[in-house]
Amino acid sequence: MKLLVVGASYRTSPVPVLERLTTSPADLPGMLSRLLAQPYVGEAVVLSTCNRVEVYAAVSGFHGGLGDICAVLAAHAGFDVPAELASHLYVHFDGDAVEHTFKVAAGLDSMVIGEPQILGQLRDAYHTATEADSAGRLLHELMQQGLRVGKRAHAETGIDRAGQSVVTAALEVAAEHLPGGLDGRPALVIGAGAMGALSVATLSRAGVGPLRVTNRNAGRAERLAEAYGAHAVGYPDVIGALRDADLVVSATASQTPVLTREILEAAAAARTGRDPLVVLDLALPRDVAPDAADVPGVVVLDIDRLAEARRDHPASADTVAVENIVAAEVESFLGWLRGKDVAPTVAALRGRADDVVSAELRRLNQRHPEFSDDQRADVAKTLHRVVQQLLHSPTVRVRQLAQTPGGDQYAALLRDLFDLDIPQATHADAVPEIGGDA
Question: What NCBIfam families does the annotation carry (predicted)?
Answer without folding.
Answer: hemA, PRK00045.1-3
